[in-house]
What does this fold into?
Amino acid sequence: MKRRDIKTDSRPPASMTPEQVIRKRLRRIVDAEEITGFLWKLVMFAVMMWAMFGMVFGITPMKNNDMSPRLSSGDLMFYYRLEETFRSQDIIVFEKEGKQYTGRIIARGGESVEITEDSQLIVNGSHVVETDIFYRTPRYGDEIEYPLHLGPGQYFVLCDYRDGARDSRYFGAVDRAEIKGKVLAVIRRSHL
It folds into this structure.
C-alpha cells in the first residue's frame, strides 16, 4: 500500500474537469461573501444596540431596597432616556451628587409640597393618601424648609420605602437635567 502525500498547493487535482474547478472556486467565493456579509450584519447589530441602549434606553440594577416592596435590590430596570413629560407617580432614575438613585415623582414644577411633623404628606394643600405605600413619610432634619415650592423643571421625588431612603427630603428638589429617564420595565432578580 502506498501512502499518499498531503497536497499543500492549491492546484486542482488532474482528475477534475474545468466545470468542476469553476464550481469549486465559485463556492469558495460565495462562502467568503457569506462570511463577510455575516460580519457586516454583526457589526451593524452591535452599533444599533449601542445606539439603542446608549442614547434611547438605559439598563441599571436597583442597588438597594429604597423602592421596596415594588422594586427590590438586584432587580434590573429598563428606562427611557428621551421622555419629555414626567407625571406624578412616575418612577424615575436620577443622579444627585454624583450618585444614581431611583424614586417616585410626588410633585412637579409649580406645585408645593409639605411634610408635617406627624409624617403627613401634603401636596398643594391637600393630604395625599397613598394606598400602595405602607410606610409613614417622616421629615429628615431641618435641611429642607416646608412648604417647598417647586420651580419650573423641578420635581419632588420620594422613595417607596420612606424611612431612611435618600430622596427629596434629604437633598431637595430634583432638576430635570438630573433625571436620566423614566422606568418602563423591571426584570425581577428571581427570574435571572
Q: What stands out?
A: Residues 121 and 129 are 8 Å apart (CA to CA). Helices lie at 18-56, 168-171. The two ends are 60 Å apart (CA to CA).
